[in-house]
Every structure is written in C-alpha cells, then in structure tokens.
Amino acid sequence: MRHTSRKSGTKGRSGTRLSHEEGAIVKDWGGRLPIALIYPNTYYLGMSNLGVHAVYSLLNSDLKTVGERVFLDTTVKNAPAAIESGRPLTDFAVLAFSISYELDYFNVINILRATGIPLLSAERDARHPVIIAGGPCVTANPMPLLPFFDAFCIGEAEPIVPAILPVLYDNIGEIRTALFQNLAKVPGVYVPLYPPSAPVTRQWAKNLDDFDTRSVILTEDTEFGDSYLIETERGCARGCRFCLVNSVYAPMRFRSVEKITKQAWEGLQSRRRVGLVGPTIADHPQIVEILTALNEMNAEISISSLRVDTLSEKIVSELAKGRLQTITIAPEAGSQRLRNAINKCLTEDDILRATDLIANHQFSQLKLYFIVGLPTETDEDVESIVELTTKIKDRLESKRSNTRITVNASPFIPKASTPFQWTPMAPEDILNRRLGILKSSLPLKGIKLNEESPAWSQVQGALSRGDDRVAPVLADMKETTLSAWKKAVKQHELDIESYVNHHLDPTQKLPWSIIDSGMKEERLLAELEKAIK
Questions:
Q1: 467-490 pLDDT, tens per residue?
Q2: Domain final residue, candidates 201, 216, 245
Q3: Which residues are CB-contacts of 507 (< 8 A; sequence separation ≥ 6)?
Q4: Is residue 51 located within the same domain as residue 182?
Q5: What are the two backbone dihedrals, phi and then psi, of residue 228, each rounded to the nearest 5 degrees?
Q6: For the purposes of burial, counting CB atoms within 10 Å of the CB of 90, is it exposed (0-12), middle (13-18) or buried (19 or more)?
Q7: Can you give the pTM of this predicted structure?
Q8: Which helix (DSSP H) or strand (DSSP E) does residue 448 occupy?
Q9: How many other β-carbons are positioned within 10 Å of the β-carbon of residue 203?
C-alpha cells in the first residue's frame, strides 16, 4: 500500500523522515520477507541515488517482500533503524547494502557494529540476518569486503533482484548452508562460502524500458529535492581508459523517448523540474526530441553531464529554454597529449566551441571536471589545466557572459576491469604538488576550485585494488579517520603501497579475477599499451 502519511508507532528521526516524503511504500510485515535496503551514507546522498529508488521499487513490487530503507543517519536509540517502520536491523531477515563508493566501506562496518551483529559471516548463524551487498564497487571488486558478507550481487539490480527473492523467501529459516548453496546458483550472485568454478558473470538489464528507473520517493531533503529524476541512458561507448562505467554498466543502452516523456509527465504532477540522469546525456540519439518534449510540457530541466563534442546549438538552446542553470562538462585533462592517452577524444577546439555555445545563452555556472595524477601525467599537463580553464573564462567574458566557472579536481584512482587497472596512483606528495599548481593559479583568476583529498584518495585506491587482506584493517578501525586507518594498517603489517603506488604485473592473477565483467583482459592490455605509446 502506497501512502505519504506517518506510520502509527514510528518514532525518532526515521518517523520524521517518513512524514516529509511522498511515495514511500509501507507494508504490513505479516507473512512477508522483510529486507532492509541500506545505503551506507547519509539520507541526503542516498535519496539522490537513482539506484536506491530502483532497488526499493523492485523489492516492493514483490507481494511477498517488504523493502524498507536505512541510511547512516537514520537512527533510533543510537542504532540504525528503518525509515518506514522504525524497526532495528536485527528485526529484518535480510540486510541488502547498496555500495557506490569505496570510502563507504567504513560506514558498512560502523553500521554492522552498531547493530551488534557479528561482523564476520563465519561467525553468524540462523539467528542473524542474511547480509548481501551490491553496487558498482562490489561489481568491480568485492574482495576487501569478502569476510563480512554472505553474498554479493555482481551487476545490475534489475535482472538479479527478482531472481534472488524467491530463493530467499523459500530458504530463510532453513539450514543456512542450503540457502547459500541455492543463492550461489543464481546468475550474478557470488557466495564466498561456495567459490564458483568459473568467474561470476556480471548481469545487466537488456531493455531499459522494461524497468522504471526514476524517482520513486520525493523529498526536499536531498540534493535534487526540487527534481523528478529519470534515467535516460546507461553505460557509455566512449572507452575512456580510466572509467569504471565502461565495465560496470556496459553495454550502452538508451531509454525510449516515449518512456522518458511519459515518466516526465507523471513527475511534473509533483515537481516542476525534470532531471535527466546518465553518463553522457547528449549521446542519446533523440536528445533534441526529448528536450523539446520537456519544454513543451513547460518543465524546468536539469542534466547530469554532457559531452562537448556532441553539443549543438539546438541542444544548448533547448536546455536554456528549460531554465537549466548549471552545465557540467569533463575535459578530464588539460593537454591534448594527455587527453589522447586516456582516450578522451576531445580537442581544445571542441571544448572552446562548446564554450561559445554556452556563453550565447547565459547559464549561471559552468562546472569543469579534471583528474590529477593520470598515468604519464607531468607538471606541464597540470599547468595546461590552468591554461585551458583560462581560455574558457576569456571566451565566456568576451561574450559578456556572467557564467561562473567551478573546477573540480580529483586524484586518479585505478579501477578494476579498466585499462588502467594495472597502473599506480601518483604518490601523495606529487598529487599535493600538482593540486598546488591549481590552487595557486585558478582562484587568482576568479575561478572556484574544489579538490578531493590526496590522502583519502590513497585510501580509496587501496580499497579499489585491494584483496581480502584489507578486510581485517577495516574491521579493526574504531573510527573513520586517517590516523585510525594508518594505525590499523601498521597493526596488520599491510604494505598499502603495493596496492596503491606500484604497477601490477599483467601476468599475475588479479584479486578481482573472480568477476567476469565482460571486458576481455587482452583488450584492456591493448588499450593500456596504446595509452603508454
């Protein structure tokens, strides 16, 4: 039963959240399998994630299942509790974690520890919930979390969730070994207790129109509180050599114009803005038709990302009509040499041509995304970021545009199943020096700079390329700080530099080889060789 009112008996912060939502699903637990969908970060971030909405909808579309949400900051008496019922996690039969970022691994441990449930799968029994994880990080490399979970979902939720729900419903309460054996038979499910004879094949939805990946619950307390989000596409065909999207969400698929416009019309009954979500929105072959239809509905439009080489006057004009305030583009590197090396096939002319289009329509903000520390990068490449950004600013000012520029600079982190999975991160001191080049130059030119911490990026790199030896470090951390991380690493005598700052040997088995992402190693090595050349 769908409703928006507060459930009788719900207490604390969870009840307050529910009373401010539209579209939450509250079911009676009688005879149903209760599953807690846990996003190990804040409600504000989690409710901005369309994946959470999609899994929530999948769980509750099953008549035998109750799906309730839990976030890092939804608590009752200092223990995580579900928003819908206010129940603690120990009341649920299944805890399903959706993990989007490696640094949220610390939050996973903190949430489990707060419940009193044993951290290690081997120490749990039939008295405890079955604990499962999914999400892009897990699909790429589940190994650092291996001892904590009973099962991992490798791939997209749409084909996996409907397949595992009957197994869970029929086997919960029975001997756990039988449950795990049956889970291990489901395509895309990795059960560490029963290692497969062949790598687990990543699962993906064949037709996006078969699934409603859009805002299910509307709330103001989120980054996109005024928007109704719709997934426009999934995957990317561009082949950037650093990017996880190419392996975790391949192949590229598009939602139909008819489906998008129908969902948009429904969303506009509650929100004035429609947010189009996808890695490269302008790559949709009918993007102009989509934008035109939204403008005919008098919708305000927001858009997650754009490729400058596919921007046209018509696209930019339609975005301006939709009262879009911020345009986001990602050159990734300042120099042409480095853009070629990472296979970001953009020229400076492409970028400046797009800048002219943007300047003609007076958008309030232009966000630029760059990566620092990419393989083969030099200080000169970083100085090229300053030069390119300055040219963009000059171009905007020459058109008398009031568009503000924000530069977001993130350290390169090697990701599994990408051509750069074997390459090291730049050492922390080099990252600090190169970010220093940006900090000393861009603000003086009236350009805002947002940077990610090199120290925490090194931790993220260890988790990205880590194996199960990283798990005891996570388990022994009593707080999420750099000092606690370093102390636990030292205690377990773990050589973190071997995960982060060293080349991995292409002839050696990789920790995540248990996963078949669909990307052939020969192809990845060929792309790495092209980058080096």
A1: 999 999 999 998 999 999 999 999
A2: 201
A3: none
A4: yes
A5: -110, 115
A6: middle
A7: 0.95
A8: strand 448-451
A9: 19
